[in-house]
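Dear Dr. H.,

I hope your travels went smoothly. While you were away I took the liberty of generating a structure for the chain from your last submission, since the lab meeting agenda had it listed for discussion. I wanted you to have the full record in hand beforehand rather than looking at slides cold. The sequence, exactly as received, is reproduced here:
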Amino acid sequence: MRSKAGVEALARYVEREGGGLPGRGHVERLPGGVEHRTGVWIVNQKQRRGRLGPEQLAVLADLGVDWAR
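The corresponding predicted structure, in token form, is as follows:
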């Protein structure tokens, strides 16, 4: 995965919402006021899943991303 911020943003979203994935338009606010376009990021990861390594897929799977399993 190209973005540590993406994993952090997705983890924050999943923790707050109790699971699920954000919609494409979702923007997650990270500490320090940084906004991360998490919805777009997860769509991009899905499109690139063939190029993600096993460790990267495992991180996404642990966060509840079904297609990463």
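Two observations you may find useful: The two ends are 15 Å apart (CA to CA). The helical segments are 4-17, 38-47, 54-62.

With kind regards,
E. W.
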